[in-house]
Amino acid sequence: MSTNKNNLTTSWGAPVGDNQNSMTAGSRGPTLIQDVHLLEKLAHFNRERVPERVVHAKGAGAHGYFEVTNDLTKYTKANFLSEVGKQTPVFVRFSTVAGELGSADTVRDPRGFAVKFYTEEGNYDLVGNNTPVFFIRDAIKFPDFIHTQKRHPQTHLKNPNAVWDFWSLSPESLHQVTILMSDRGIPATYRHMHGFGSHTFKWVNEQGEAVWVKYHFKTEQGIKNLDVDLAAKLAGENPDYHTEDLFNAIAEGDYPSWKLCVQIMPLEDAKTYRFDPFDVTKVWSQKDYPLIEVGRMVLNRNPENYFAEVEQATFSPGNFVPGIEASPDKMLQGRLFAYSDAHRYRVGANHNTLPINRPIAPVNHYQRDGQMRFDGNGGSSLYYEPNSYGGPTESPENKPAPFEVSGMADSVPYDHNDHYTQAGDLYRLMSEEEQSRLIRNIVAAMKPVDKDEIKIRQIGHWLKADPDLGRRIAEGLGLPVPHNED
C-alpha cells in the first residue's frame, strides 16, 4: 500500500481510492450505504457550522503582541504588566454586533474589540467595544435589548419600531445612541477606530492595595469614519470590506497598532464621584482622571484558518489574572457568566482547550470529560480535591482582594439617573458639520417608526440632552417639539 504523504484519506487516516464517484449497485444502481467515505463527507458537511454567536457574529481577527511601555506596578501585580519591555502574545477579534454571520461590515453598529492576552499566569480577556459606553447598564435588560436589534418573528425583517420603542423607554441608552448615530457609528476600517474595555475593573498591587481602572486602546492609525452613502455602497459591493482591509494590511506588512492607556480612580472616589463610576452608560472625565500610558499592541500575523482561529476563538470578561478583578458594574457582573456560558453552548464544554483558546500557562485542574475532549482528559491523574496524593492545590496569595458589601438584598436600580448631561456634552463638542450629520442619521433612522408616540418620547430625551438637538430632530421628523417636564 502506498504511504505517500499526499494521499487523500478519510478522517480516520485510511486512504481514499475514489473521491469523484459514489459507490453504486451497477452503473445506474442506487448508492450503497457501505460507501462510508461518502457518508462521512456528507455527515461532516452537515455539521461544519457551529451555531453563530448571538451577538458579534460577523468578525475578523489577527495575532500580535502587547509590549509594556510604562511601569504601573504600583497599581497592579499582573505579571504581564510587570516590566517595561515585556511582551505578551495576543489574539484580537473585531466584529459588528447586531448582524448575522453574512451581514455587511459597513453597517451602522458598534464594533466589538476583544483582546486575548496569553500571559504566563493564564489567559486574560479584555472584551470591549469601539465605544466607551453601552446602551444599558443592567444585564437583566440585555436579552430584551438584543431582541430589538434582531429580526421580527413574523416578517423576519429588521424592526425600527422595536429599536426606538426600547431606546425611548430606556433613557440610559441616550449616550451610546448619540455615539452610534454620529460619524463614529461607521468606522472606515477596524484599524482606524479606538477600543475600550468599557466597564470599570479593579487593579490590585502586591501590597493588596486596589484602584478602579478603565481601559482605552488608542489607534495609532488615526480615527477615520465612512460617509453614510459610501458605507451603503460598500455594503452592496463589498460586504466584507473591513475583513479584507485588515487581512491585506497585515499581509502587506502594514501592521496596525494601538496605544493602551488607562484611567485610574482611587477606591474612595467612587463614593462621591458625580456619576456612578460603575455605570457603563457613563464615562469618567479625563480631566478628573487623565489617561496613563500602559503599553502598545501590534497585530502582525493573519490567521492560517478562519474557522479554527477566528470563529472558534472564545472570549470572556471573566477570564482574569492575579492583579485584575471585577467591579460592581451590573452589566459586567452579568457578562462574567453569560460569555463563558455562550461558548459552552456554541463551541462546547472544552472550548478552552482548543489551540486558539488554550493558555500558554500550565493548566492544572480536576475538570474531566465533556464533548470533544481531545487532550488526554487528565489521563490517570487525580480527579478530585481535596486529596491525599499531592494533587494541585489552591494558592491563597492569589485570592481576589476582599471588598466590603452592605445593604438589603433587593432588585434595585442605580442611584444616579442623569442620562442626559454626557450625551449633551458630546453633541456640544461636535462641529456644526458633525452635528448636522448626526441629526440627519437620527432622522433617517427614526422615520420608519410607525408610532408618533415613540418618536415624540425619544425626542423628549434629545431635548433634555440639548434643546437645539431635540428641536432639530423634531423639525426633521415634521413633529412638534414636545414640552419636557423635569
Automatic annotation (TrEMBL):
PROSITE patterns: CATALASE_1, CATALASE_2, CATALASE_3
Molecular function GO terms recorded: catalase activity
Catalytic activity: 2 H2O2 = O2 + 2 H2O
Enzyme class: oxidoreductase
Superkingdom to which the source organism belongs: Bacteria
Database matches in SMART domains: Catalase (SM01060)
Keyword Metal-binding: yes
Residue ranges of every copy of the Catalase core domain listed in the record: 9-393
This protein's UniProt keywords: Heme, Hydrogen peroxide, Iron, Metal-binding, Oxidoreductase, Peroxidase
Composition bias, Polar residues: 1-25
A matching Pfam family: Catalase-rel
EC nos: 1.11.1.6
UniProt region (Disordered), positions on chain: 1-29
Keyword Transcription regulation tagged: no
Similarity section: Belongs to the catalase family.
Name by which UniProt lists this protein: Catalase
Organism (species): Paenibacillus residui
